[in-house]
UniProtKB/TrEMBL annotation:
This is Kinase inhibitor. InterPro entries: CT_C_D (IPR003833), Cyclophilin-like_dom_sf (IPR029000), PxpB (IPR010016). GO terms for molecular function: protein kinase inhibitor activity. It comes from Brevibacillus porteri. It comes from the Bacteria. Residues 17-226 form the Carboxyltransferase domain. It holds the Pfam family CT_C_D. Coiled coil: none annotated. Keywords: ATP-binding, Hydrolase, Nucleotide-binding, Protein kinase inhibitor. SUPFAM superfamilies: Cyclophilin-like (SSF50891), PH0987 N-terminal domain-like (SSF160467).
Length: 249
């Protein structure tokens, strides 16, 4: 279902970035201005470095489109012998770390194959996407399933992947009236992005298919099937194959 590949980032060191507070126990590190491959690689590199070198008091780091948010314990970073705020101490640590990270880095990433049954009751908006873009249903399926996507971040719902790299020929506005309930596993298009509904939830994306895989299992040590930095490719399957598929990963 998935395989590992490698990519290489070239350069010297990461430049200084913008830091801003998030509540009383978080620092948002801004690594770029636009959502693109270069910024994403900086986000993943910074996040991976923090995971490998957590500082005392650090709780977790959360990668986003252009940022990494670092959560910390203010009590651990507080020192009664000086007047440095926990936030300022966290920023000082992160600034120092940013100068230690090499931007020449080989990154292992997963290419995950997601089986999808397109159209019918599983993809009620498939024809809408085709009509919007002057394509046939078969062309939409072919274009959508022959593209390799990048998982920029997990958000909106537990395990929901925001996938970048969709062919602009499939870009379709979100529905004017969101649905109150979209089944788990539904594959949708919203503007220039595609994604997978990891749990049953409301939503306004155009639904073109559904996967039998479960993208989120709360009881697992790693509950999300996909992570930021993964690559995804969709594989068309029939309704019979969908019915025989196990909703696990």
């Amino acid at each position: 279902m998935w395989q590992y590949r490698y990519s290489k980032m070239e350069g010297k060191t990461l430049p200084r970035y913008e830091f801003s507070p998030l509540g009383d126990s978080g620092v948002m590190v801004k690594l770029g201005e636009v959502i693109d491959q270069q910024t994403h690689e900086k986000v993943i590199l910074f996040s991976e470095y923090l995971q490998e070198h957590p500082f005392p008091g650090m709780i977790e780091s959360v990668p986003g489109f252009t940022t990494v948010t670092v959560y910390y314990d203010p009590i651990t970073l507080f020192d009664p012998l000086d007047d440095i705020l926990p936030y300022d101490r966290a920023v000082a640590i992160l600034e120092q770390m940013s100068q230690q990270i090499s931007n020449t880095h080989s990154t292992e990433y997963r290419l995950v194959e997601i089986p999808v049954c397109y159209g019918g009751s599983f993809g009620p908006d498939l024809e809408v996407v085709a009509k919007q873009n002057g394509l046939s249903v078969e062309e939409v399926i072919s274009i959508h399933s022959t593209t390799e996507y990048l998982v920029y971040m997990i958000g909106f719902a537990p395990g929901f992947p925001y996938l970048g790299g969709m062919d602009e020929r499939l870009a379709t506005p979100r529905r004017s009236s969101p649905r109150l309930s979209i089944p788990m596993g539904s594959v949708g298009i919203g503007g220039l992005q595609t994604g997978i509904y990891s749990i049953e939830s409301p939503g306004g994306w155009q639904i073109i298919g559904r996967t039998p895989l479960s993208l989120f299992q709360a009881g697992e040590s790693s509950p999300s099937l996909l992570c930021a930095g993964d690559k995804v490719r969709f594989r068309p399957i029939s309704e019979r194959e969908y019915d025989n598929g196990e909703k696990v990963y």
